[in-house]
Design brief:
alpha/beta; four-stranded parallel beta sheet; 10 helices; globular
């Protein structure tokens, strides 16, 4: 064997480890990403998830078993430090040898400015795929202060781009099952496209009552489907609303006969009673980070289904 070819082969193997699929350990951060990766890995393996379904990713206490999964990981898929800055030190300390993919930095995504009008400010920047970047400062909502809203998974178009990146990465580490990963990604893409069409039909044919949210997490969904959130109960990430914000909400709901509320976890009933005291309110339990009872293979699609079903229930005759 020529020496130059031997050197090339050795370099390739070092760059793309040929880990057996039976031992390929894949870790994800939140339930929607867990669902996407699980669909691509169907028939080959199952990823693990760090943040338990239904939990708040902004404020989470890592369990020893979850730290162990990070330490043993070959590949980690996460949104990035913009959503969970507290995970960056854990990765630095425990996952030095893992391939870490920050999905927020994948090329071609729709990205929205944090706190901006979701129908105006968006762009499709190009970034490196390597997620091992230094964490910066945090903004008031507890997100990394990059100026970008980190809830990108609520735009199904972003999820469809991620499916291709997930399949590509898994295929590099497990080329023996590359065709399975690609086919699974195509099937998952087809399913998400169908959900997009259903939601678009609902938005086109329904007259919605005003829709409120617990906090400003749905900008990507608003931007993709033309939904307008009338207001958010919390002006800062899952913290009790300030008196000034409560006053603003009272102005919004003062003459409002009916409304819908997309409620997550830890919602204070006294806030609802105060803000919607004169409004017939329909409360929809919907956590943008995923439902606690979703099986791995449907974790992402369940979230989109719940949003679609919620919009249908929020329709007026």
């Amino acid at each position: 064997m020529p020496r130059s070819f031997s050197f090339f082969l050795l370099s390739f193997l070092l760059l793309f480890p040929q880990t057996s699929w039976a031992n390929l350990r894949v870790v994800t951060d939140i339930t929607p990403i867990y669902g996407l990766v699980a669909q691509v890995m169907k028939g080959v393996g199952t990823p693990s998830v760090i943040i338990r379904a239904g939990s708040d990713p902004h404020h989470y206490q890592l369990r020893p078993s979850e730290a162990a999964n990070i330490e043993q990981a070959d590949i980690i898929f996460w949104i990035g430090p913009e959503l969970t800055p507290w995970l960056q030190p854990a990765f630095d300390n425990l996952a030095a040898d893992a391939k870490i993919i920050s999905l927020m930095k994948i090329d071609g995504l729709t990205r929205l400015a944090a706190g901006a009008d979701s129908h105006v400010h968006h762009h499709e920047d190009k970034h490196d795929h390597d997620g091992k970047n230094e964490a910066g400062h945090h903004n008031e909502a507890g997100h990394e202060n990059s100026g970008i809203d980190p809830h990108l998974w609520l735009d199904p178009e972003n999820a469809r781009i991620w499916l291709q990146e997930i399949a590509r990465t898994l295929s590099l580490y497990d080329p023996e099952n590359a065709e399975i990963y690609r086919e699974n990604a195509r099937a998952a893409d087809h399913k998400i496209a169908g959900l997009q069409r259903r939601i678009a039909r609902i938005m086109a044919t329904s007259r919605l009552m005003p829709v409120f949210a617990q906090h400003a997490a749905f900008a990507y969904f608003e931007n993709r489907f033309g939904l307008e959130i009338a207001g958010t109960l919390y002006d800062r990430e899952n913290e009790a609303p300030s008196p000034g914000h409560i006053a603003e909400l009272h102005q919004l709901t003062r003459n409002l006969p009916k409304a819908c509320l997309l409620a997550e976890t830890h919602l204070e009933n006294n806030v609802i009673a105060s803000v919607f005291s004169k409004t017939d309110l329909l409360v929809m339990a919907l956590n943008p980070s995923g439902a606690a009872n979703s099986p791995p293979l449907t974790a992402y699609s369940d979230l989109m289904e719940r949003l679609a079903n919620g919009l249908e229930k929020c329709s007026t005759p």
